[in-house]
Design goal:
binds aspartic acid, VC0802-like, 6-stranded antiparallel beta sheet, binds adenosine-5'-diphosphate, Carbamate kinase, binds magnesium ion, 8-stranded mixed beta sheet, 408 residues, alpha/beta
Length: 408
């Protein structure tokens, strides 16, 4: 007997028939004698619909109220699945984040899980129930409803698996595993049997939304056995996230990630003196805006520099506003921005022992006339910022240049 946490995404619970399908899969695992905790997303499109509804009333919705509202999406699916399981003669019980007591910090719309009280779940599991938990939501210490950021149900799933010391966390979605790149952009993308945890972390943080980054972080920290599978197929091993020592020979490049949610901000004519990076990024960080790539260049006159960084596109106007206010204090000349950029990244642990990857990447993109606006590298990834209109072309030509296609 094993304890398994299964998370089903929005498409997998998108209508009553699909919910019944999920119930059947859960029933099969129960019939094999396993204990099952199910974590669900809202029906596909529902979270977007709720956010749009909020914006029809308040252009920048109050974050606390937004969380109160968007958390309802998951509340619908957990009740429906519990009913479907009961219809099949199983014992099932739904839980909101608050009912489990998934405690988070109070960063509404992007809260982090602080602790999980797994006692209620364990009691019900031992009594033969399937526990059906709402993904994406928790409560802060004051009892306010919080949500974990888009795609956050993955994180609920892995965090519950960690808290319950589950034997496996299965993420069921609308693709049958993790691919070399998004199969919707490159149809020749190849499914990976395994991917190292480190690579998955990079892929997720660089924009591959198949898993929310925090879920991968949790899996790494608590060594959760994590697998991505299709909810539409009966069979299949999906993709197992492995820890490097288990992995056999590594390809140089495992995958290509991209992120459309990027925007670039440049502060021009910044005096070149100590403390300037802090003067620029301090107020941005204080506003809880995450900064990603940073480039600082000494200007032609040797006394001023230009400072460029990227932020999430949804926080672009807020960041620009903050910098406009701080412009005088910084002593800079001007602020420019571009929110029509994307980031494309090559990821692979094999890069550590191979040179020439960057130059192949740059040459491939140059041949297509794609200008590189920013570059950043680490041991296992190379990222470039380019104009958004070249995104699909760049991903396709790189996928080909590094021979990531489906084996013929
Ligand atoms: P869910 O609603 O089940 O959470 P998501 O839409 O969040 O599903 O994630 C699955 C989607 O991730 C796929 O439909 C696919 O388009 C996208 N995706 C992006 N990069 C990859 C990748 N490397 N491998 C597989 N899927 C990817
Ligand atoms: N429903 C939430 C979203 O769309 C959480 C999730 O699906 O993981 O972001
Ligand atoms: Mg998702």
């Amino acid at each position: 007997m094993a304890l398994i946490v299964q998370k089903y995404g929005g498409t997998s619970v998108g209508n009553p028939d699909r919910i019944k399908n999920v119930a059947q899969r859960v029933a099969r695992f129960k019939a094999q004698g396993h204990q099952v905790v199910v974590v669900l997303s809202a029906m596909s499109g529902e979270t977007n619909r709720l956010i749009a509804l909020a914006k029809s009333i308040q252009s920048t919705p109050d974050p606390r109220e937004l969380d109160v509202m968007v958390a309802t999406g998951e509340q619908v699916t957990i009740a429906l699945l519990s009913m479907a399981l009961m219809e099949m003669g199983l014992k099932a019980k739904s839980y909101t984040g608050a009912q489990v007591r998934i405690v988070t910090d109070d960063a509404f719309t992007k809260a982090r899980i602080l602790s999980i009280d797994e006692e209620n779940l364990r009691r019900d599991l031992n009594a033969g129930y399937v526990a059906v938990v709402a993904g994406f939501q928790g409560v802060d210490e004051q009892g306010n409803i919080t949500t974990l950021g888009r795609g956050g149900s993955d994180t609920t799933g892995v965090a519950l698996a960690a808290a319950l010391k589950a034997d496996e966390c299965q993420i069921y979605t609308d693709v049958d595993g993790v691919y070399t790149t998004d199969p919707r952009i490159v149809p020749e993308a190849r499914k990976l049997k395994t991917i190292t945890f480190e690579e998955m972390l990079e892929m997720a943080s660089l924009g591959s939304k198949v898993l929310q980054i925090r879920s991968v972080e949790f899996a790494g920290k608590y060594k959760v056995k994590l697998r991505v599978l299709s909810s539409f197929e009966e069979e299949g091993e999906g993709t197992l996230i492995t820890f490097e020592e288990d992995a056999m020979e590594q390809p140089i490049i495992s995958g290509i990630a991209f992120n459309r949610d990027e925007a670039k901000i440049t502060v021009l004519g910044v005096p070149d003196r100590p403390g300037i990076a802090y003067a620029i990024l301090g107020p941005v960080a204080d506003a809880n805006i995450d900064v990603d790539m940073i480039i600082q260049n000494v200007g032609a006159d040797g006394t001023t520099t230009d400072f460029t960084f990227t932020v999430n596109r949804s926080e672009y106007s807020k960041a620009i506003g903050i910098l406009q206010t701080a412009l005088k204090d910084i002593g800079a000349r001007e602020i420019k921005g571009d929110d029509k950029i994307v980031k494309v990244s090559l990821v692979g642990v094999g890069m550590r022992s191979h040179s020439g990857i960057a130059s192949t990447m740059f040459k491939t993109l140059a041949t297509e006339g794609i200008n590189l606006q920013m570059i950043s590298t680490s041991e296992i990834k190379i990222s470039v910022v380019i104009d958004e209109k070249y995104l699909e072309l760049a991903v396709r030509v790189l996928h080909k240049a590094f021979n990531l296609e489906q084996a013929a």
